[in-house]
Amino acid sequence: xxxxxxxHISAFGLDNHGLRNASLVHWNDTSAALYxxxxxxxxxxxxxxxxxxxxxxxxxxxxxxxxxxxxxSHTEKTVWWDNNKSMTLExxxxxxQSMLGYAxxxxxxxxxxxGGADPQNRINVRIVTQxxxxxxxxxxxxxxxxxxxxxxxxxxxxxxxxxDFEATPELHGSRGETVIAVNFAERMVLIGGxxxxxxxxxxxxxILNYLLxxxxxxxxxxxxxxxxxxxxxxxxxxxxxxKTTLSADPDRTLIGDDEHxxxxxxxxxxxxxxxxxx
Length: 278
Prior knowledge:
The protein is an alpha/beta fold and 278 residues long. The chain contains seven helices and 16 strands.
C-alpha cells in the first residue's frame, strides 16, 4: 500500500501515469516544507541568509544533444527535424517502462502547477521527481494553482523526472546515460541522467513552444518589462547575454526574465518566477 502525504492529493492519481509501488508520495508540499525536506535529506546546504545551494553533478547546464522528440505521423509534419533529434515510439515506450520500474520503491514528490501566467493560454503540468529540491525549484518557477483547484487537478502534460536513472542507448535510443524525451501524442516528458533542474522548466517551454503557435501565439525566449502606460519592452538574446539584467529596470515592472508568449492582446510569462544565474 502506497503512503500518500502532503497538501491536496489530486483525485487523478499516479496510477494514471503507470507509477505504482512508490514507498512514499509527497503531494503539492509548500516551499517551506520542501526546503526543510531537502536540507534534512542532505540534498543541499544552507548558505548565508538562507538560500539553498545544491550540486547538480556532471551537468551544470542543459544537455541539448540528449533531447529527443518522438517522431510520429503528426510530429513528422510539425517539428523542424533539421535541429531536433528523433526517437521512435518503441524507444520511448522502452524508456518509460524502464523509468517506471526504476521509480518503484522510491520516495516521490509531485507538484501540480500551471505552465503559463495567462489563464486563457496556460497548461496543467504535473511534475513527478525523486528529489525534494527539484520539486522546490519547479514550484518556484511555474505558477501555483489556487488551493481549491488542486483536488480536481488533471494534468495536460506530465513530466517524469528521475535524475538518478541512467538510460541505455541500445534499449532506449539515447546518446548515453542522459536523456530528455518528449512525446506530444501521449503528453509526457521523460528526464533521466541529469540533475540540472533547468531541464524541467525548459521541457515546459518546449511544450508551449509546440502548442501555442497553433493558437496564434508566438513563444519567445526573452525577458519583458512594462511601463506605467502599459508599454512592453522585450529583450531577446541567448542564455547569459544579459536579458535579465536589462529588464530589471527600477522604473518599470518586470513581467518575466526568460520565457513568454506574445498574443494579439497581451504578452505573458510562461512562468511565475525568475531564472537569474548566480
